[in-house]
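Aim 2 progress update. The chain analyzed this quarter is reproduced below.
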Amino acid sequence: MRVVILGCGRVGSTLAAMLTKEGHHVCVIDRDQTAFEKAVQRLGPDFTRETVRGVGIDEATLLQAGIEEADVFVSVTSGDNTNIVAAQIARHKFHVPKVFVRVYDPIRAQAYREAGIETVCTTTIGAGVFHDMLLGRPLRGLQEYIDDVAPHVGQQ
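Predicted structure tokens:
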């Protein structure tokens, strides 16, 4: 499988290492060269990956990363707007079959999920996990956290 990951922070680099170890072809995009250096420090010298330094919403950068042949695009930068725009470009411009995006804002996550973009909101999932833990409940599946927390989003 060919995977393009936007964002070489902790999530992006760890995912890249996991996929590379399983034999998938992975290219990681980040605008900051030091992100690649930090990933090697965190994950060790066995962290192998193809890298492209550039802005992930720039079509030339995406083409350099091999977006046209990608089976999967994952956007996990620290910016919700960048992640959403990059995901839309990957899906609509380059017709990548599977597109996943991390969004911190639960309201945005729900809106984009309803629009058909595979969205992971770490804020929502984290809140659900902590809620279960502090009440002594067993941990549930990912979709259950999304379904349980989503109705509370935007309510005060």
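The first helix runs from residue 10 to 21. The longest strand covers residues 25-30. These observations will guide the mutagenesis experiments scheduled for the next reporting period.
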